[in-house]
Amino acid sequence: MKKLAFYEANHDKSTNLNYFFSKDSYTPPHFHRSIEILYITEGNLVGEVEDETFSANKDDIIFVRRCAIHSLAPASSYANYVLIIKSAYADDFSATLEKETLPPLLSDKAFNRKLLPYFRRLNHAAQDENFLVCKGLIDIIIGELFTRYPKMPVISAPNMSLIVSVLNYIDEHFHEPISLESISSEF
What we know:
single chain, alpha+beta, two-stranded antiparallel ribbon, 7 helices, 39% helix
């Protein structure tokens, strides 16, 4: 993706499950250290994950691995569930996702419709802030997606590991004085 992307730090700083219903939103190029899954419930949109551009329609799922630069734009009116999976909810499968990932567009609509009740139930569990139920539903969704769709090796963008290392360093040392010099000496 040749466009400038911004780091969406608010997703990485929050420990709460970020799950919501969205409609007709434009999302500029960005990345975060969380996994993001979108279930398109109506209409269609144009998505881009890393350098892959695609059209997603009703009952498609978009999968965005950690630190992948991605953006969304309405092709017409659309609505979707947005699930941003923090590390506390991903520990059962995070080691697997460091080595392999799913394609960005998951378009077996008949299969995806079988997962829609889990997305709907997750909406209620997230509102009730029930950690164990949310974690279980996320595990089911990820497990089913990994069972149905082909896995691809993770290919990191150039310098992305350095960027993530710097972000981790800042997270771990935020209580200390941090300067450009201290970061550059560390890296």
